[in-house]
Amino acid sequence: MTIRFSHHSGDLMVKRHAQVVLRDLNVKNLSELEPHSMTWADLGKAVNSIRSSGRLLCDKINPALPESRAEEIEAAFDTLMEAVNDLEGERDLRNSIGNRDPRESESVIPVPMGRDVTASGVDLDGPQGHRGETISDSRILAPEDRMATWAQAASPDPYRGLSLGGYLRSMIVGAKTDTERRALAEGSDSAGGYTVPTTLSSELIDKLRAASVVNAAGARMVPLTSDDHVIARLATDPVPAWRTENSAVTESEPTFDSVPLQPKSLAVLTKISFELMEDSVNLQTELPRIMSVALAKELDRVALIGSGTAPEPRGVANTSGIGTTAHDDAISSYIPLVRARTGILSANAGPVSAIIMHPRDEGSIAEMVDGNGNPLIMPRVLEPIPVLTTTALPIDGGVGTNESSVIVGNFRHLLIGMRTNITVTVLREHFAGNMQYGLLAYMRADVAVSQPGAFHTITGVQG
């Protein structure tokens, strides 16, 4: 598993702004790292060193920094995080096969004697040669399922009674209980960050899902236990044919392809004043809520309109094969929505579970009237479909910089892959001048559309 980069300039930016990490790792470029050949201890040291350098880069960015230099630092940070992803992916792979020893080559995965590879979930070939863990339907969580329930079933909770808010607060003011002290000691790294216990990470993810529009629309969650997963999907249906007695059956084979889920980094920074930390009685409740809402909005954005350009996941609107209508006007009737629904049903991908739009466009639709000035009656076929709103959809696109998109779909075919490990770093010195603490939360997620025909976008919707 050789370190991959989305831009060749990433190595150069690391040399320019994070030279210390190259010295720590004894390499000229991060691309020289070969995770498969590293010892388990060296993998951990490399991850901690790179994360530490990433946090130092974050501290360098401030409003007074020239834009060009800020872009260079961001490019270096993205490259560091891609390296962390690959190193952690190697650790995840070794855990999944039960062997933490270095591998002979990137393509060789040792399987211990007696190990049932199929039972472990490791697919050595994968659809279309894609190497990764194949995910079964039993691992996919419906909107009403809780990630915390899945995490508790997957492994016992060694920190029973510890709350997420209490753990976050203890990172700043110190532990008050033996459980908090043990969790901080076992979850800390050499760079000052803390890995949030799996059950508490799952609690934060559940709060995120509760605040997520795509989750309300029916999107499903996939807990990711390694760095490389595969969703198998049906590309074309088999075609049945009538036959006469004693005649041969006409062959019609379905075709399958694969959808990869490879988690990418998503971070959020929350600042808290010294006074609020000391005096607030409900901060243990508010901290998780604030962080989950911020993460949910960004996850909604990439799930709906993510570009797919690294490190950003590809969202519904930029997925090949979905239906699209270029409206290029203000919505004055329900016809575009009816046609979007018809397109999805015609692709045998229904029923439509939700329509998602910006609040501005929902308001415009609610104000539609007929020729006599009476409210326009919604067609009966649209009445059962929930209309959801989110400001994650921009309204400043297009020629007139006032255009948005409406996304119609059967959102059970939208999968959000989520790693259960979340890392939080307390930034004490960076905001000390304003008497603030910073909480930098870092998680990894990806987005996949399992059936493109289940979605239809209406673009160019004007205000």
What report would you give on this structure?
- With 463 residues, the chain is α/β, with parallel strands linked by helices.
- The protein folds into two domains: 9-97; 137-237 and 250-463, Major capsid protein gp5 fold (2-Layer Sandwich).
- Helix content is 36%, strand content 21%.
- It has helices at residues 9-17, 19-25, 40-60, 67-97, 117-120, 147-154, 164-173, 178-187, 198-210, 213-217, 274-279, 283-305, 335-346, 359-366, and strands at 122-123, 132-134, 193-196, 220-224, 229-236, 255-261, 264-273, 323-330, 354-357, 387-389, 403-409, 414-419, 422-427, 436-449, 455-462.
- Helix 2 runs antiparallel to helix 3 (40-60).
- Mean pLDDT is 81; it is low at 1-7 and 111-131.
List keywords for this structure.
five-stranded mixed sheet; 14 helices; 36% helix; disordered N terminus; Major capsid protein gp5 fold; globular; 463 residues; 2 domains; 15 strands; six-stranded mixed sheet; alpha/beta
Principal-axis shape: globular
The tally of structural domains comes to 2
Distance between the termini: 48 Å
Number of strands: 15
- CATH fold-level topology of the largest domain: Major capsid protein gp5 fold
Q: What's the average pLDDT?
A: 81
The H/E string reads HHHHHEEHHHEHHEEEEHHEHEHEEEEEE
